[in-house]
Amino acid sequence: VEASIPEPQRKAWLAHQTSGFKDKDGFETEVVRHVETTLARSMYNCDEQAAYSACSLAFRDRLILEWNRTQQRQTFADSKRVYYLSLEFLMGRALDNAMLNIGQKDVAKAGLAELGFRIEDVIEQEHDAALGNGGLGRLAACFLDSLASLNYSAWGYGLRYRYGIFKQEIIDGYQVEVPDYWLDFNPWEFPRHDVTVDIQFYGHVTKRTDDNGKTIATWEGGEIVKAVAYDVPIPGYATPSTNNLRLWSSKAASGEFDFQKFNSGDYENSVADQQRAETISAVLYPNDNLDRGKELRLKQQYFWVAASLYDIVRRFKKSRRPWKEFPDQVAIQLNDTHPTLAVVELQRILVDLEGLDWEEAWNIVTNTFGYTNHTVLPEALEKWSVPLFQHLLPRHLQLIYDINLFFLQSVERKFPKDREMLARVSIIEESQPKMVRMAHLAIVGSHKVNGVAELHSDLIKTTIFKDFVEVFGPDKFTNVTNGITPRRWLHQANPRLSELISSKTGSQNFLKDLTELAKIEHYKDDKAFRKEWAEIKYANKVRLAKHIKKTTGVDVNPSALFDVQVKRIHEYKRQQMNIFGVIHRYLTLKSLSPEERKKFQPRVSIFGGKAAPGYWMAKQIIHLINAVGAVVNNDKDIGDLLKVIFLEDYNVSKAEMIIPASDLSEHISTAGTEASGTSNMKFVLNGGLIIGTCDGANIEITREIGEQNIFLFGNLAEDVEDIRHNHTYGSYTVDPDLVKVFEAIEKGTFGEPNDFMGMISAVRDHGDFYLVSDDFHSYIETQELVDKAYRDQEGWITKSIESVARMGFFSSDRCINEYAEGIWNIEPLAVKDQ
Ligand code: 4GP
Question: Which of 21, 252, 370, 659 could be a cystine partner for 823, CB 3.0 to 4.6 Å?
């Protein structure tokens, strides 16, 4: 790298490389410098917000030096890069993560203390970067951390939404959505006004034949919107590697506003174009596992995909390699179907713009892409109407038809005369209007398709993508079980536990190789270790109890069992079953004498999560949880025996506080519906036990930690179909305990019964699609086993320690290495000064 710096600049460059801070004093100097110059404030009125900003800027400076070096290293190495295309990156806060990954949090802590600040308060000033809905977006963020930490040449590409996922307020027990404007001051991004791409929409296609008889298609007219790059540095842990997340922001191509309109007095319309262009990257769609075909969403997708591909192709072209080497240099991973248009866009670039033959281009395309599926729920599978496509992306629609034609011809050769097969696998659904099936396009356009946990990967092969297994053979379909980064989800979220573990494993190396956790199992009978283990959990619960008091006004006893379900609210995740279970517990307690009640294990049931704004049933579930809390928490007979808490605005930074404080967490989806789940991994890694169904990654967690350490219940995925069939065609009765719960609700115990009738009738009158009643008995019984196990505190601690020790498999590092080897075919880059 050094040799590449021109002679006149080299001396200054070298001096700059060693600047930044080495110790507390150097850090303080940098903070003061940023307060007084960058922020243009004076130290005498430096508040916590200013301290946060200056501290972030000081760390950002360091990151940027490493970022520059990493980019140069990758350019010189000229080896294959991976590009992770995700419409969501749920990053959370950056400062704490940067300090820890760089390894200088202690320095910052001491420096800030000397300047009169507590580091915890400074960290709290940061607004979460909430550019995602839930699991899919957070997985992408964990992957970026692993890619950088493992020294892979990797870029993330996403959208820079002006508004992330809405902020949730609970008012009178109802969810109210408030916009999340998070960009007022964001030191973690760099606008790259020099990196822009013109993106075309609408217009029409003309075709002509050239001298060689080849058809040339040209996409003309329509409108142009500008994509501007914003770069976010991603620090690796204990390595200088700092990767890039590039987020695109939309801007009007025609500059500021229309002077002509302005001058003619049409003031309002003079800014209309600009506003329309900026709308594209304005909001994150708040859908979790629901698809709604809105034009703006398709526009977002194409905008982002086209800008990213332009960037990727530009980088490849710099190497002056022949096109056929593209897949040796570039791997692109499609995080769900949202970026599937990239398949079509690359084909368009190669055929229309670069003049390659169809076949050659298509080979390059399919060898470049991999597709990850995150759900088997049919309502979440993206489809776009053909007329919408025709209007917005006329050339792409033609290409999709061609891709489909060649694909169906190949299917026809393999399955002659099987018209039904052709209709089933076709990229175009012959409905009214016709629809483009994005998952089919993603499969056809990729060389590998993966699910995110073993059960899920098996299910996609036997259900939604069954026909494709016959068409392409089983090898195209694979599994990569999800993982989480232990840096954020252990080291950052639970510093005391991380420290205790490193004191026993001998170093912090377990944060790079999570299988080293196994070493702590030797200490599971060590008295002092166990005591410390229990104390850490208790301290984390005290912290959460304080937060609960502050935000809800409810006192909870930290010695009670903390039972947590935090995730997006969805019927398939079955928060309704949890709250029905809580009501059952409440009714049971009420029916007992005060003496008998005392034998009960005190519990705090904690919920958190957002409902998609248009998802009526999910909102009803939130309302019932709050209504039950209002009654139970104020019932003198009950006291500390049961508390019901709904924590508003669940997000990444709240997760970092809640997860380490749980004794038990609930992962109770109807078997076969939760693709993997990743919070299950986070809870166990922090010493909490799980109550769960045989679904998603729960199954692999059980295999790793042992059946004795998890509370499994409920029907199996393989039986769900038959049970549902029986609901529809046979007779079914609601579980008697659940009937009592419904009666209590209908009597008005928790307020206006009509407010909750949707939830009741879904079970009682509409076929109970999610098997709430079928699983209820086994759920209640298993909760009783939990109470019993918890009363044996020593036994519980043993389970907790054993579980953590056996969680090594669930690191996102393992997961990324599997993608690298099995799908991307890339190797880490050697980093010398590591
Ligand atoms: C989620 C799945 O629901 C979850 O099971 C999985 O762990 C996660 O992706 C990561 O693979 N899906 C979404 C979504 O978040 O928006 O479809």
Answer: 370
Q: H helices then E strands: how many in the chain?
A: 35, 24
Is 678 part of the annotated catalytic residue set? yes
**CATH code of the domain occupying 486-810:** 3.40.50.2000
Q: Compute the distance from residue 376 Cα to the ligand 1 centre, in Å.
A: 10
For Cα atoms 128, 134, 140, give the angle at the middle one, nearest 5 degrees.
80
Domain pair 1-290 / 319-481, same fold: yes
What residue owns the CA closest to ligand 1's atom 9? Answer: 136
Task: Check: pTM over 0.95? Answer yes or no.
Answer: yes
Give the residue from 147, 21, 36 showing the smallest Cα distance to 84.
147
Q: Pick the catalytic residue: 573, 574, 584, 585?
A: 573
The answer to ipTM > 0.85 is yes
Cβ of residue 679 lying under 6 Å from some atom of ligand 1? no
Listed as own residue / partner, the contacts of 594-601 with beta carbons closer than 8 Å and 24 or more positions apart are 594/637, 597/637, 597/641, 600/641, 600/787, 601/560, 601/561, 601/787, 601/788, 601/790, 601/791
Distance CA 489, CA 486 (A): 5
Per the CB < 8 A criterion, the answer to whether 335 and 87 are in contact is yes
Alpha helices in 93-190 (DSSP H): 95-102, 105-114, 119-124, 135-149
Q: Verify whether ligand 1 is closer than 6 Å to residue 380 (CB atom).
A: yes
Closest C-alpha to 161, from 128, 134, 137, 129: 129
* Mean pLDDT of all residues in 128-154: 97
> How far is Cα 148 from Cα 143, in angstroms, rounded to an integer?
9
Torsion of CA 819, 823, 829, 834, to 10 degrees: 10
Is 696's C-beta closer than 6 angstroms to any atom of ligand 1?
A: yes
Catalytic residue status for 251: no
- Is residue 673 lining ligand 1, measured as CB closer than 6 Å? no
Residue 257: predicted pLDDT = 57
Q: What is the pLDDT of residue 581?
A: 98
CA 557 from chain centre, in angstroms, equals 32
Evaluate: CB of 678 within 6 angstroms of ligand 1.
yes
CATH superfamily of 1-290: Glycogen Phosphorylase B; (3.40.50.2000)
Average pLDDT, the chain: 95
pLDDT greater than 90 at residue 406: yes
pLDDT digits (tens, 9 = 90+) for 478-527: 999 999 999 999 999 999 999 999 999 999 999 999 999 999 999 999 99
Shortest-distance atom of ligand 1 to CA 568: 15
* DSSP 8-state assignment for residue 128: P
- Any ligand 1 atom below 6 A from CB of 670: no
Two tokens, residue 501: 């573990």
Nearest to 438 by CA among 291, 284, 285: 291
Contacts of 147 (CB under 8 A, 6+ apart): 82, 84, 154, 234, 243, 816
Ligand 1 binding pocket mutation candidate from 676, 681, 698, 810 (most atoms within 8 A of CB): 676
The tens digit of pLDDT for each residue in 563-584 reads 999 999 999 999 999 999 999 9
Please calculate the CA angle 241-247-250 and round it to the nearest 5 degrees. Answer: 160
Residue 452 Cα: closest atom of ligand 1: 11
pLDDT at 263 over 80: no
Q: How far is the CA of 133 from the centre of ligand 1 (A)?
A: 9
Fold of 319-481: Rossmann fold (3.40.50)
Per-residue pLDDT of 746-768, as tens digits, reads: 999 999 999 999 999 999 999 99
Residue 531 catalytic? no
Question: pLDDT grade, residue 256 (50/70/90)?
Answer: low
User: What percent of the chain shows pLDDT beyond 70?
Assistant: 97
Beta pairing, strands 561-566 & 477-479 = unpaired
pLDDT at 834 over 50: no
